[in-house]
């Protein structure tokens, strides 16, 4: 499992882009790590799945609600990562009105989840291998804070906890 002080793995996430511009085409676009992390402070949180109850009702909305406060505390971008495809992450982002606040990044093949060791096996519940629920503060590609949940609980990876760690 990735530890505080370590660099995030070099892999590619996907982001559904709805408006063409700045070198991005409409549709799924690659977000190549560590390039996308270079020189930035990222509040990254992962959820077991888009449109699932805790993720949609509490986890993601907390980061949308506290987006400005996180930016005021020095965060350049907020990333939501899930083992879903870019189309689902894009639709979830539209449904939750995250535009301009949270980037919805797809780890469709669980490459990032496996490389970090932050997985949650929900086989038998119809969900297969997923990302564990966690939050992390990443500065210039290195993990500075890691808040890993026990199972699917939401007690330490919420926006309020990460915001408190920044202040």
From TrEMBL:
Keywords assigned: Antioxidant, Oxidoreductase, Peroxidase, Redox-active center
Protein task: Thiol-specific peroxidase that catalyzes the reduction of hydrogen peroxide and organic hydroperoxides to water and alcohols, respectively. Plays a role in cell protection against oxidative stress by detoxifying peroxides.
Protein name as catalogued: Glutathione-dependent peroxiredoxin
Family as reported in the entry's similarity comment: Belongs to the peroxiredoxin family. Prx5 subfamily.
Organism of this sequence: Comamonas nitrativorans
Catalytic activity line of the entry: a hydroperoxide + 2 glutathione = an alcohol + glutathione disulfide + H2O
EC number: 1.11.1.27
One Pfam family recorded for the sequence: Redoxin
């Amino acid at each position: 499992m990735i530890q505080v002080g370590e660099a995030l793995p070099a892999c590619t996430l996907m982001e559904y882009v709805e408006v063409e511009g700045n070198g991005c085409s409409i549709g799924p676009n690659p977000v190549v790590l560590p390039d996308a992390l270079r020189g930035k402070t990222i509040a990254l949180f992962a959820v077991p799945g888009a449109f699932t109850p805790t993720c949609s009702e509490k986890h993601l909305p907390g980061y949308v609600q506290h987006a400005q406060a996180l930016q005021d505390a020095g965060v350049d971008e907020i990333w939501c990562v899930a083992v879903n495809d870019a189309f689902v992450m894009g639709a979830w982002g539209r449904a939750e009105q995250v535009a301009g606040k949270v980037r919805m990044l797809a780890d469709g093949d669980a490459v990032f989840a496996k490389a970090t060791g932050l997985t949650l096996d929900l086989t038998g519940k119809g969900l297969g291998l997923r990302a564990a629920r966690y939050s992390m503060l990443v500065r210039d590609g290195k993990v500075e804070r890691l808040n890993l949940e026990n199972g699917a609980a939401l007690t330490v990876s919420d926006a309020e906890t990460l915001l408190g760690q920044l202040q």
